[in-house]
Amino acid sequence: MVEMGSEAYEYQLLIKHILESGVRYAPKQEIVYRDVWKYTYKDMYERVHKLANSLKEMDVKKGTKVAVLEWDSHRYLECYYAIPMMGAVLHTVNVRLSPEDILYTMQHAEDEVVLVNQDFLPLMESLKDKLSTVKKYVIITDNEMPETSLTDLEYEEMLKKASNSYEFPDFDENMMATLAYTTGTTGKPKGVWFTHRHILLHTLAVAIANLGYTTPTRITDQEVYMPLTPMFHVHAWGIPYVTTLLGYKQIYPGRYEPQMIAKLIKTEKVTFSHCVPTILQMVVDNLPEGMKFEGWKVIIGGSKLPKGLALRAMDKGIKVMTGYGMSETCPVLTLAVIKPELQNLSDKEMVDYLIKTGLPIPLVYLQVVHEDFTKVKPDEEDMGEIVVRAPWLIQSYLKNGEKTKELWRGGWLHTGDIAVMDEYGYVTIVDRLKDVIKSGGEWISSLTLESLLSLHPKIREVAVIGVPDEKWGERPLAIIVPAEERPSEGELKQHLLKFVEEGKITKWAIPEKFAFVEEIPKTSVGKIDKKVLRQKFK
Question: Is 210 helix (H, G, I), strand (E, B) or coil?
């Protein structure tokens, strides 16, 4: 064993190293916000220093919780760095939660400073008297400072007055860096927090997987990046940290509007994004006839990518691939990269692998297990729960020991996702533990039915839930948003019978009932809200 000298530098894995690497490599690279703001990495770096000095004036120090309520912007990106680099904690508030849940998360976090976009001023003004820990508010606006009883501080004016020199300290890499909350679909939102070490290791592994493995969405050093996953949602899946590290051009669309998104993709020549299937659906549905986004690479996560949507996106020139993770995992665990022995498949055959949940990225250990922790057979039929280990998983929920014990049973993080595995090691999630349909002693995958129904040309969007049945316990119900022409129930049953003959589903899985709706409800992060659907159709 080599003895370390007392003069050796103890290198801590801190978020500041991500930013400084990107600025050193590409100081003149552009960062663009909508069609109103454009500056360089060097400019952003200076503004990060200014923001840190401004927050220091407000007595922000190590451990101080700073809440941000903002759309996806260059200013949010500055907060990603300045706040944790000071040793403070960035609380990315989910602005799509109910006012009641937003109040709960901010109280639970004990936020002391709040940076708030003017769009959320009415909300903050209504909650102000109940936020006893908050000492200061700062308004974020693209326009003139609005009238408000909260504060006279405005983000841009504050930065203008601040020094552009701040000495970001070294400290323990295991300090809390960011804090967010789960969407609370099964109770109160839970506090999910990550350290500097978590985020830096996650950044490196995601970069390696996206740069090094073979896939249609493989990135190069020429990408133009635009997130279409909210920046409040697990650091926009951690990709802004990856693209900053690599010095890529970055585009931030603000509030999501189809016309603005399409405009930015075209004018800024966006090549790389990520989103949930509903956002991809929105883009594909709103593209004019004959228009294509040739070469646009999009990683899809949050919920299963239906094969029908994947094929429609490919017809529009969009290259897609699935990724998987959850709020508790920082979040990326898998990507549907193509193993060397499968790279000679035809495009048609490869689609079936690109829409699988995928393979673990570097440093992730993933198993699919039964309740007794025995592994499932790699036959794509034997189902079990995904459990994982990786160096960036949360160690505990904030102030919630009971839920932490449930999460980490047996020394593995339990995802609650039910999956199968194939002979090559690819995992495919077939349902959430709470969403799988238990019918007459058989488990029916709602996600598989959704994917197969999505291939019908008369279906624009579909959700499948289990509804109570006196005889069988539960039966599947397909809830459908039709395309221009509404399909008959007979047509849909005949469509599914083809997949029975192919062995993809059993005849028992075919729903007896179909419901037609104009819109399917979504959660705050764009996933199909099956809790609402179950309540409506029970």
Answer: helix
pTM: 0.86
- Farthest CA pair distance, the chain: 78
β pairing state of 365-369 and 359-360? unpaired
Of these residues, 70, 223, 328, 380, which one is catalytic? 328
Distance CA 288, CA 232 (A): 30
Gap between the Cα atoms of 528 and 522, Å rounded: 4
- Is residue 56 among the annotated active site residues? no
Q: Which two tokens stand for residue 499?
A: 């997949």
The contacts of residue 38 (CB under 8 Å, 6+ apart) are 30, 31, 32
Task: Give the type of residue at 316.
Answer: K
Indicate the fold that domain 437-537 takes in CATH. GMP Synthetase; Chain A, domain 3 (3.30.300)
Q: Is the pLDDT of residue 52 over 60?
A: yes
Q: Annotated catalytic residue: which of 160, 405, 434, 438?
A: 438
Out of 130, 443, 507, 536, the active site residue is: 443
182 given a catalytic annotation: yes
Q: Identify which of 194, 159, 188 has the alpha carbon closest to the alpha carbon of residue 173.
A: 194
Domain parsing of the chain, residue ranges: 36-193, 437-537
| Cα–Cα dist 309/504, whole Å | 18
- Tell me the per-residue pLDDT of 395-446, one tens digit each, with 9 for 90 and over: 999 999 999 999 999 999 999 999 999 999 999 998 887 788 888 777 788 8
Q: Give residue-wise pLDDT tens across range 115-162.
A: 999 999 999 999 999 999 999 999 999 999 999 999 999 999 999 999
Do 437-537 and 36-193 have the same topology in CATH?
A: no
Q: Domain 36-193: which topology? A: Rossmann fold (3.40.50)
